[in-house]
Amino acid sequence: MSQNAIEIEGLQKTYAARKGQPAKQALKGIDLKIPQGSIFGLLGPNGAGKSTLINILAGLVRKSAGTVRIWGFDQDVNPRQSRASIGVMPQELNMDPFFSARGALDVQAGLYGVPRAQRRTDEILDLIGLTDKADAYARTLSGGMRRRLLLGKALVHAPHVLVLDEPTAGVDIELRQMLWRNVRRLNEEGMTIILTTHYLEEAQDMCGEIAIINQGELVVQDTTPNLLGRLDAKTLVIEPETAPPALPAIDGVEVTSRPGGAIAFDYRRSLTSPGAILEAVRNAGIQIRDVRTEEADLEDVFLALTRSPAPA
């Protein structure tokens, strides 16, 4: 099979008009390849089409056009195999409150046709930290524990691909750290992880490759380091020995003072060099105690790529 866990070509989805609302094209010809064994970020603003794409992958929404292959299985040709190759941890806390944690995992495994002798219920309960709550009803679990149970349900059939849809939304730090430990462990064991999140620092830290979609279209797909290198903007921060009487003026550079006496120089690499800034600082008679640079983060890249153009 291909070295890609997921291959999407020309994916389109149009929701029919209803109740006075016009038809809406949620996906407009998405082409996307997600490598095997990666932790892959799928980002975009609200309404970009992320949920529609995930629901199509999970087999919950029918695409209007295009091709989807999961672990080499074409959704149209081998729907059962493609669906068995993927597990989805949804954002919504939807579960039957009258099942115990163990019962919920067993039922989910049964829905996927996992024979009882091959079920890994106890192993999964241990992985998600719910061994001591195995026989507790889901309705008695805290919100964080229910979210752990959603992860367990996504793993019962040992999928090759795991989709985490906003997994840390509204959870505490302890649960977030536990989740990321488990995700890294699963990835080290060969599972491909797809992450959607509004916490961009998480995507920057976890994902080796990222795709950004906006208004139903793929804006960019690249490695995280390459994305971070796309912005031309940089900042040089100088800590002077003594506070200067005035901030130096440099053409094309925005100069601002910071709390504690530091001076920030925001510049574009294509127009100004750090050396030119340092020379201007010395010419202004400023003695430098320390100097550092600040790079753009993923939030800067995200906003630059998804910002709506200004009206003409």
Describe the 3D structure:
The protein has 312 residues and is of the alpha/beta class. It has 2 domains: 4-223, P-loop containing nucleotide triphosphate hydrolases (Rossmann fold, 3-Layer(aba) Sandwich); 233-295, Alpha-Beta Plaits. The protein has helices at 50-57, 79-84, 101-111, 121-127, 143-155, 173-188, 200-206, 224-228, 274-283, 298-306; strands at 4-15, 24-35, 39-43, 65-70, 73-74, 86-89, 161-165, 192-196, 209-214, 217-223, 233-240, 254-257, 263-268, 288-294. The strands form 3 sheets. Strands 6-7-8-3-9-10 form a 6-stranded mixed sheet, with helices on both faces. Helix 3 packs parallel to helix 5 (143-155). The mean pLDDT is 90.
